Amino acid sequence: MAAFAAHTSATSSHYSPPGTAILLRSRRRAFPTRVSCSAAAAAGNKTVVIGVAADSGCGKSTFMRRLTSVLGGGAEPPRGGNPESNTLVGDTATVVCLDDYHSLDRAARKARGLTALDPRANDFDLMYEQVRAIKDGRAVDKPVYNHVTGLLDPPERVAPPRILLLEGLHPMYDERVRGLLDFSIYLDISDEVKFAWKIQRDLAERGHSLESIKAIIEARKPDFDAYIDPQKKYADAVIEVLPTQLIPGDDDGKVPRVRLIMKEGVKHFAPVYLFDEGSTISWIPCGRKLSCSYPGIKFAYGFGAYFGHEVSVLEMDGRFDKLDELIYVETHLSNLSTKFFGEVAQQMLTHADLPGSNNGTGLFQTIVGLKIRELCEQIVAERDAMTADAVKV
Amino acid sequence: MAAFAAHTSATSSHYSPPGTAILLRSRRRAFPTRVSCSAAAAAGNKTVVIGVAADSGCGKSTFMRRLTSVLGGGAEPPRGGNPESNTLVGDTATVVCLDDYHSLDRAARKARGLTALDPRANDFDLMYEQVRAIKDGRAVDKPVYNHVTGLLDPPERVAPPRILLLEGLHPMYDERVRGLLDFSIYLDISDEVKFAWKIQRDLAERGHSLESIKAIIEARKPDFDAYIDPQKKYADAVIEVLPTQLIPGDDDGKVPRVRLIMKEGVKHFAPVYLFDEGSTISWIPCGRKLSCSYPGIKFAYGFGAYFGHEVSVLEMDGRFDKLDELIYVETHLSNLSTKFFGEVAQQMLTHADLPGSNNGTGLFQTIVGLKIRELCEQIVAERDAMTADAVKV
Fold first, then answer.
1. pLDDT at residue A20, rounded to an integer
2. I need a labelling partner for B253 at 20 to 30 A (CA). Which of A76, A151, A302, B244 fits?
């Protein structure tokens, strides 16, 4: 167990591997099977709804580009609408940014001393009502929060898509909205990496000082800890980004260690595994058959508990430097839900310009996209089968 | 690399994993290919000769029973001969104990202050001459060292078998004898385990005191270090037995950590691997699909250098408690050279009464037996093909 435990020592992780090497076969069955997908299908819903929660500056927009690409048709801002719209519309999926449900504009938040993270600055009643309507197949007039002006612009029409991606600070915060999600993902960036990323961006691009960056992060932290972070316990999949363990003392975030935590027992979601499902493995693919640049690549796979739920965990530390490294890794992972050999590599290459395309963030975002595509297809297929049965009866 | 390095920290091991995760593809080719088998075949030899070196009390006789069982037909003491004969004769293999080449009997060694480990107490000229003769297809009259009396008994006749197993203290000591070996194995028991085993046996069975056992080991050590241990650098395969790392502070040798070190580039010998050849892996099979008793089972696989030679290494720490654990592990190993599914488990079960049948010593001895069987078959096939070609010409 030592090999994996060494991997999972990040202070910010809530994932814990099993305490000993002993696990009874019956253990798996002790966890209840989630039936959100089938419940949604049974209710005759038309749109599959996916929630993606994360703090701002944590790569949600990159994730959305990867997801909509995998789901098919990509997604662009609505034509002829508000140029500051946060919505993306594609052939298959529509992305709605939950910032649009801010109930207080920037000035009002400032006046009341609230951050955008505070639930009191957001309208969950409307959020629930509109997501419910879309799921039922009805178009809605959704508010638009203008990030440039900080004002609430006139609403825009959102038609029910095949797949609705709800991204933002609070997709799993409100119990009613959470109940509408067919699948949920939490992007969990560790404090060290978040700090390194913000420094890279704000110091270079925005001219902030190191002290002011620290102050901004510290000011947001209480609300983040109170309202955003607790949502991860509801997520079906969590992507954790942690500092590398391949380079001692490295903390610039350029070589991340990324963990994909996958809840067991979620219908239509079969966790990805490495070599031997349900065992504990560490794997350094770099060797005789695959040459890697420093500091190499290391994978770990295992299982354990995450907020009391049984989970499978896949971890990648390091960076891909060459295409053959990525393809080599892809061929050794199972349950990827690809439709053809090399689809993960193809997706990563298509978006080579996006941040994280050479490391575990891009890899696991792409894999989550493939898993969601399969989940949606299965929900639709199941619904169609139920409809056909109902017609027969 | 940390996961495997943690595995390979035994003080007594000469195996070192690669220093970094970087290894050029061309590295493998830098090691010369050994051609001992083809050289033997080219010379038209009839008997395949395998050397097995180890200190006394290290399980050579158990190993011989496993080997002759795998090779086919087992092996028994010669009928109607000296009841103290050290030779075993079977349908396929004959085992010759190199103690028979002691040139000094017990009294003479005592008089000259020499141990049996000292080359001066052994007749390497005769050993070479007789192994050469057997390899050439001629029977020999081999001396017999009587372990009961400590005297040299009259010689016994040894006919050339298909496979000659030379087991003893010095099969790789003399350069000429070493040159006759088609494959060589060294059983390397770490000092901690050797001490634990001797205590178990001698304290319980022979009534020695702890102090006297320590004194006996210490007295043998200089000669062991000078004449026996250095042979391991010539071995094609080394079985190392080390203390477990699964139970902190455990040193009673009951749960061993066993390492199979396999030299690369040996003709007719394809090293066993776990999941992905040429990478670095640690694997705890116990988990969702396989339940294990405490302290569980842990495997490691990797590559590195051993006395300057490139090697692959498979390690097992822990014990099999149930048959399904053994079969599960067998199904995940590759290049086992089995002839049918489950042959390793079947062999282990057949000899369930032998020491080590529930741990890595029995597993790796059995695997080495399978590899030797295949190697011998390939040498014979190659020789037959060459003979057929020669006839045509």
1. 36
2. A302
